[in-house]
Every structure is written in C-alpha cells, then in structure tokens.
Amino acid sequence: MEKSVFVKKPPCIIRHPQHYTENEGESAMTIAILAHDSRKELALQFCTAYSGILSRNTVIATGTTGRMLAQATGLPVHCYLSGKLGGIQQISSRVACDEVDLVLFFRDPLRADSGSSNEQNLLRLCDMHSVPIATNIATAEVLLRGMDQGDLDYREGMHPPVIEPLAAPRRAVC
Predict the structure, then answer these.
(1) Among 5, 74, 95, 126, which is least packed, fewest CB within 10 Å?
(2) In whole angstroms, how far apart are CA 129 and each of 16, 23, 83, 96, 103?
C-alpha cells in the first residue's frame, strides 16, 4: 500500500500553544495556501521555488490546491475540502481560532466571483486576527522571505499560553 503524503490533523476546536512545534526542534508556523483555478500553476511554481522554506513549516491548503502541491513538491500538506465545497470556510475557521500564521491566496482578480462572500470573510478574519495575507505572487514572496528571516516571529507572541482559570478567592468566615 502506498503511503499517503497528506497529514491528518484534528479540526479546530481549541487552539493549543503546542501547534508551533510540529516540526521537531524548531518553531514552525502554519501557512495556508489557496489558489483560484487560473492561478494554480503559478501557485505550484511559487511553492516549488520556496519548498525549502515551506518544508520547515506546517502547510495547509484547500483540496485541489493541496493535492497538486503535495504531488509537485513532495511536501506534507493537510488538505481541506475544495474551495467551492467549503475549504475556504474551513481555513477561515482556522484563522478565527488563531491557528494560521500566514495566508497565501493566489487570487484571480478578473474572475467573476473573485469577491465572493467566503473570500471576503477570509480577508476580514485575517484583518481581525492580524494574520498576514498575500493575494498575489509579489506579496507572497515578500512575506515568505520575511518569515524565513524571522520578521514574523512576533506571531508567536500573539498566541498566549493557555492559562487555567484562577480559583475563586476564599472569604474568611467571621
């Protein structure tokens, strides 16, 4: 039986501070990759060129893009549903749970529905949670190079450790 290149992860329920340590011994960030059909080839070329950086981090993607990316680069990719079948919403929920550190969205601005509510929601959530998002190859390159140089290390501080609630103070009985 052929070994699958896809990594299985539990759905977003609670954000665990350990989600950075999937790549043992170093601090890994979670990078979400999405691409419209007309931009998939561009996304694959980009990811192949930057596979060294991507390999040191956790990569998640919408279904078709993720399968193509895993096949072309050999990287482990956690694939969600295809974008039109709910994959954009699944990645958006990961952004909302502070489980994504960087989004690379290779959009086609000339596509008739490129401003769909699902895409607008992803952009809004990235703004709300201060998640850097690239919507073109130039910005994607700047963000990945910056991340590789440590310019996005501030993201680790945005995920405070989970702290147990304080016990209610006991009142003295007089």
Answers:
(1) 74
(2) 16, 24, 21, 7, 12
**Segment 21-48 mean pLDDT:** 83
30-35/77-79 β-pairing: unpaired
Q: Exposed, middle or buried by CB within 10 Å (0-12, 13-18, 19+), for 155? A: buried
Alpha helix (H) residue ranges in 11-116: 40-49, 51-55, 63-73, 87-96
Top-confidence range, 7-21, 99-113, 152-166? 99-113
Burial pattern 108-133, b for ≥16 Cβ within 10 A else e, equals eeeeeeeeeeebeebbebbeeeebbb
Structure tokens at 162: 């989970």
Residues 72-113 have pLDDT tens digits of 999 999 999 998 899 999 999 999 999 999 999 999 988 777
